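Running this now, will post back.
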Amino acid sequence: LRIIDDDAAVAFGSDEAAWREVQEAFPTIGGMANADTTNVLPRGDVAEHPERSALLQRAQEVAAQTKRNKAQKQWNEERGRQILIEDALKRRAERLSLRQEIAAKQAAEREAEKAENEEMARARAEIERWREEQFDMLNRIAEETRQRESHEGKKRAQLQYVDSSSQSNDRDKEKEAAKVAAEAAAAERAAKKKAAKKKKERERQKAKKAAEKKEQDRLAKIKEEKKRREEADLKCPHCSAGILDEGFEKLGFLFCSPKCARAGAST
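Update: finished.
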């Protein structure tokens, strides 16, 4: 839009057109009811025609006011657009901030779950190591007992070989005592093995119950989330699942996940 202020011809033509419109609208002003307005135009110095000068001044004021009103309207429209843009940017920043908070919360939950899994894995490894140590200790005790019994048996055999003629009764007693001691040692080993086996079974059942409880908690969370999605007011336009958070906006639609947002709304 070009506004020409210094062109006298354009200014005079504008005044002439404004004066003609006024004369056509009010033909009785100035006693010119029967005058031909097509041939009576402002010419020369306007001071010679006071009525024309007043009409032209009024027309110029109206034109200036119209111009100011148009400029004010344009400014108001532009300001309104700016306010709408600022509001849209503010809402977008709030949505982004909320998504970041949700992402940070989900990341923290994942880290906590990972730490819990690592702690459980370390606990299981510690339990397995302790079982192996106990098993090795039991085997070592059994081996030491066997060696001691073997050594005692050899010693008794040597004594019996030396005193076979004079101590036949004592040899029988020693054999009986050795037999009883061997049976007692075998019973002790069996009891220790049985106790270790029971303890190992208890620990295995405890670990199994812990894993089952964790799985039940996970299924309960999934069930609760599914229920919340079913009760949610907002539904995903692709998979019809409920939207629990702010969702993922694309082309004016809110989706429940980036996957659904990439797929778009179902027709």
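The beta strands are 248-250, 253-255. More later if anyone needs it.
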